[in-house]
Amino acid sequence: MKLSALTAYLESLAPLNYQEDYDNSGLIVGNPDQEVSQALVSLDCTEAVVDEAIATGCQVIISHHPIVFKGLKKFNGKTYVERVVEKAIRKGIAIYAIHTNLDSIMTGVNARICETLGLKNTRILLPKHNLIKKLVTYVPLSHADAVRDALFNAGAGNIGNYSEVSFNTEGTGTFKGNEAANPYVGEVGKRHKENEVRIETVYPANLESKILMALILAHPYEEVAYDLYNLTNQHQQVGSGMIGELEIPINEESFLFHVKDKMRTHVIRHTKLLGKHVKKVAVCGGSGGFLLKHAIAAGADVFITADYKYHEFFDAEGKIVIADIGHFESEQFTQQLLYEIIRKKFPIFAVRLTEVNTNPVKYFI
Ligand SMILES: [Zn+2]
User: Fold this and answer.
1) Average pLDDT rounded to a whole number, residues 272-284
2) CA of 322 to the centre of ligand 1 (A)
3) How confident is the model at residue 251 (pLDDT cuts 50, 70, 90)?
4) Measuring CA to CA, which of 77, 249, 273, 286 is 20 to 30 A from 130?
5) What is the distance in A from the centroid of ligand 1 to the CA of 111?
6) 318 CA to middle of ligand 1, Å?
């Protein structure tokens, strides 16, 4: 299939506008029109992973971490980033990254950690803003149902567990077409009054062009009147970190044993244990330190993340146990997650998991 078919599907689950400002998710190397028959899935895209793609006949690498974060100014093979990009281009291998956009969804990196630890009643720890917009349009009574259907089918009207959400008020619209107009009702040059419905609904910002296209196709007027509003509402299903609960609270030592076992980590660096039972657990794969105050505010007993520095451990302040389980360890199941996502959607497309352990951190035990 075309590479764009694969990436479009991944972006329907984890849209690119869900990524953080500093991120570089998306197609980094490659042509969306190139044909691909096999993908290699990896947490990182290192030289060894590119070599593996070449050796196994994969035309695209899907990695969690983007190989390129900042602009590249020279390509003379001095750094592994330059060498990876150059080799991939020379060999015609595409590189696609699905990073903080995959972290942000309810079925992404953090959901997989929650599942692995057996957490229930999970929700996003810090929901994102500015992802939802509002559409208001004015439709003649005869076409109100058809327009609502078209908007809902294109992805508008979803709030939490509810779909087909809209608010409708009837009123009178007026318009007067000039000589060049071809009005659906009324006469050119005369003010026309029409009974209309004002339909209000919400939609995800990334679907805007699709939803406007559906509106214009379903609406009978030559000139469709509509208003688009930016909303500052949080999106409850998209954001950073997750929090969930253990079915049966256990003491802190037992919980850390559980984490060590399930997350296959050699060592957990943690703050002072508080002698309490663990019920609520906040998680963030990778560098999640910025979420500490949200984890505390949400009442988490333990915060599992990675990349903690010495001074940052002091911030626990006896209110929570910070447990740093290692960056690679916290995200290692992301490879399996991506593999399953692609497998399920494209059952006859070949996808393989990397055999390279890309963790740059080694433990001397
Ligand atoms: Zn990471």
Assistant:
1) 97
2) 18
3) very high
4) 286
5) 14
6) 27
